[in-house]
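Hi R.,

Quick one: here's the Elongation factor G sequence you asked about.
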Amino acid sequence: MTNNVASENRNVAIVGPYLSGKTALLESLLFATGTITRKGTAKEGNRIGDSVAEARDRNMSVEINAAYTEYGGINFTFLDCPGSVEFAQETYNALMGAGLAIVVCEPEPLRILTLSPLFKFLDDWEIPHIVFINKMDRAFSDEEGCTLNFLELLNALKTVSSRPIVPQEYPIAKGSELIGFIDLVTEQAYNYHPGAASDPVPMPEELKDLEHAARQEMLEQLSNFDDHLLEELLEEIEPPTEEIVKDLKMELGADLIVPVFFGAAELEYGVRSLLDALVREAPEPSLTAERRGLKGTSDIPIAQVLKTFYTPQGGKLSLVRVWQGELTEGIVLNGIRAAGMYRLLGQQTQGVQVAKTGEIVALARMEGIKTGDTLTAQPDRLKAPLPKAQVLPPVLAFAIAPENRKDEVKLSAALTKMIEEDPSLTWEQNTDTHQVILWGQGEIHLKVTLDRLRRKYNLPIVTSPPQIPYKETIRSNTNSHGRYKHQSGGHGQFGDVYLDITPLPRGEGFNFSETIVGGAVPKQYIPGVEMGVREYLQQGPLGFPVVDVSVTLTNGSYHSVDSSEQAFKQAARLAMQTGMAKCNPTLLEPIVTVEVCAPNDFTSQLFQLITTRRGQILGYEPVADWKGWDQVSAYLPQAEMQDLIVELRSLTMGVGYFNWKFDHLQEVPEQLAQRVLATVADDSNGGGNSKSKN
Ligand SMILES: Nc1nc2c(ncn2[C@@H]2O[C@H](COP(=O)(O)OP(=O)(O)OP(=O)(O)O)[C@@H](O)[C@H]2O)c(=O)[nH]1
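And here's the predicted structure, written out as C-alpha cells:
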C-alpha cells in the first residue's frame, strides 16, 4: 500500500465573473507564499496567470493557468480560471477536479446575479466553495457605507446560493477607505498593510455590536449542522475557537456552508488571512474523491484530465488531477506511457518524480487522451469513468477558410487539436453550403481560436457570416416533357421522357416512381431518369437544393441504337428544368427549436427577443431545480439565430443562455424571400462579399 501524504495536498480553483480579480488574487497568493518575489500587473500583462499571448492581447484570461506553491506545510495547486462566460467550459472542466473553489466577486450587490450559473454548477456537483469579495478598497463611498454595503452584499449573495452564506470576517473602514477586518472566529481585529501581513489591533469600539451580531449569525448557521454547538448557544456558553474552526472545516468540506472572506487582491489586503483559512479549512482531497464514488481505500492510480494544452512547439500536455493512489515518472495510464510529469507555474514547468492524491500535474505526450478522460494504471479494474463537465452547446458560428487554399488539410488537423484543448469548440463542413463552420461560445471565443490558428499553426484565416442552408420546394404540379437528341459523328444520343412533378407534404423529402407501360422507356434506362432528376434537384430554379417533391416517370420513347442511360439522364434534367419553373417554386428556411434560459426577471424580455426575431413562442416554465430561472421554448428561423447570444447576454447581464436544434423547414415569407434571393444573386455576381481576414 502506498504511503501517500494525501492530506497535505490541496487544489483550489479560482473562479468568478469576468475581471473580478482572479489573476490578481493568484499573483498575490503566490507572492505571499514566497513563490514569486516580484508581482506582475494586469496592465503589463506579466502576471503568472497572464501567460498566453491571446490573454495578454485582450487583458483577460482565456484558459486555465495552474500554479503550484507551498504554504503552512501544505502543497497547493491553484487553478486560475477564465471569468468570461465565453470560456466557461474551461472553468467547468477545471472545477471537476477541484477540491475547493474560491469564488472571486466584486462588491457590487447589483452584479451578484452574474454569479448565479457558477453557484448552480458548484451546487450541482457539490464542490465546496468559499467567496472572496475582492476590490473592497473601493467599496466604501461614505462613513455609513461600510455596514450597509457589507450586509447588502451578503444578502445579495444569499439570493444566488442554495447553501447558507457564512461571513468569517467583518470589515473595518475609515471614511471611504477599507483599513482592516475583524476575524469573526477569534474576534481579533487587524489593520491591513499594502504588500505585507496585517497587524493585530484592538477592536474598534463602534463596531462591537455589529461584529457581535455578525458573529452570532455565523455561529447560528454553523449550529444548524452541529447539535453540540446549538446547545452551547442556547445555554449562552461561549464555544471554544477550536470547536468553531472544526465546524467550519467540516461544514465547508461537506459543502453545507459558503464561508465569505474579502479584501483587495492587488493591495494584498485579506490575502494572508485567506491563505491561513485555506490551510485550516480546505477539505482533504479524499473528501472530494469520496463524493465522486472513490473510497480512497485503493492505491490503484486514478487521475482525470482537466485541461489539454498543445505547446507552441507542438508538444501535448494533459493537466490531470490525481484522484487516487500516486503517479510515478513514466507511469502507463490507459495503455499510454507518460513521457514526463511536471508541476506548473503558469508557463514554467518543473519535473517531478511522484504526484500524490490531490495533486494536479501535467503529463506529457498522452496521445489520444482528451479533456475529461479518466486515466488509470489498471483500466480493467475501473468501475466507471469519472463524470465530465457537460459540454456547452455551441451558440455562435463563423464560416472560415484558410487564406491559402492548399492549407485545408492543415486546418482540419489544427482544429482537431484545438477541440481536444477546448471541447466547447466544434466545426463542421456544411453539406449544402460547403462552408466550414466554426462553432463556439461567443465572438471573443471564436476570435481567440482564429488568433491561435494564425499564431500557433501559421494558418491565417478568412471569415464570413455562415450562409443559411435554405432549401426550396414547389407549390403546384405539372407534367413536363424532356427530349434529348444529339447527333455527333458515330451513333447519336436519344432519350425522351414525360414526368409528373408534384409537391409533397413538408418533411417528406423526395420520391421517385414510374408508371411506364409497354416498355415506352426500357427498364435499363429508368435508373438514368432517376439520376437525372436527383442531380437536377441539387439546385432548383431558385438556386437551392429541392425537397418535398415527388416525380413520376409516366411515358417516353426510345431509339433502338441511339438510346442510353446517359441520354435518358439528360432528358430527365431537361424535363425537370422546364417543369419545375412552372410549379410555383418557393424558398424554405430551417427552423430550430430554442430553449432560452434566464432569471425570471427577464422572462418578458425573452418573449420580446424571440418575437422580434420572427420566433414563435411554444411555452415557458420554471427551470427544474433552479430557483428563480425560467425557460422559454420557441421556434426560431435559423437566419435569426446568428447574433441571438450577443443580444441575450446583453439583456441578461451575461447569464442567459440557450440550447437549440434543427426542427423543420418552413416557407420564407414572400417579401423576405425576395430579399434573400436578391442577396444570393448579388453574392454570386461578386457583390455583397463580407469576408474578413484574421
Ligand atoms: N481596485 C482594485 N482593482 C483590482 C483589484 N484586483 C484586481 N483589480 C483590477 O481588476 C481588473 C481585472 O483584474 P484581473 O486579475 O485581470 O481579473 P480576472 O478576474 O483574472 O479577469 P478574467 O480572468 O479575465 O475574468 C484589473 O484591471 C485589475 O487591476 C483590487 O483589489 N482592487
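The CA atoms of residues 374 and 386 lie 6 Å apart.

Cheers,
M.
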